[in-house]
Amino acid sequence: MQKVISVIGYLTMVGGLLGLLFTRNLLVAHPAVIAVQVAAAALLIWARIAFGRRSFQCAANPTEGGLVTTGPYRFIRHPIYTAVCLFATAGVAAHVSVIGLLLLGLIWIGAFTRMLCEEILVVQKYPEYLEYAARTARMIPFVF
How many Cβ atoms sit within 10 Å of the Cβ of residue 97? Predict the structure, then answer.
């Protein structure tokens, strides 16, 4: 059931991002927004490199090879979802509108859905995840 819910979360995130893109609420030519979005993209790339050659899957599915706790995973448990949320939030902050906020809400809801599903599944495969989760923030170091 967690895998099905995670797919719904994934599709919700993708739908929100596409909606922001098509409504021109995602990309902005403002230096501050560009800086935040470049930082978000760098975080995403750093996380993918740390994660290694493991494939991305539409459904949450813990991969073989052990728990990844290096790179940005040393500080936060979900750097890729954090990067996506940060990227989208920066764009919407520069284009505040009802539709932008609704679409951003979809992205955040989808990300939280994925995070919760993944955490349940990862604990089943890697019980040591509980210890890792106790010392590592979900998205924002020292905060959440």
Answer: 11
Provide the b/e sequence for 104-138 (b: ≥16 CB within 10 Å): bebbbebbbbbbbbbbbbbeeeeeebeebeeebeb
Question: Around Cβ 4, how many Cβ atoms within 10 Å?
Answer: 11
How far is it, in rounded angstroms, from Cα 134 to Cα 4? 26
Is the distance from CB of 121 to CB of 3 less than 8 angstroms?
A: yes
DSSP string, 63-102: PSS----SGGGGTBS-HHHHHHHHHHHHHHHHS--HHHHH
- The angle, 0 to 180 degrees and rounded to 10, between the axes of the packed helices 79-94 and 2-22 is 30
pTM: 0.90
For residue 65, give the nearest of 111, 118, 113, 122 by alpha carbon.
122
Taking only the tens place, the pLDDT of each residue in 2-13 is 888 999 999 999
Counting every residue written for the chain, the total comes to 144
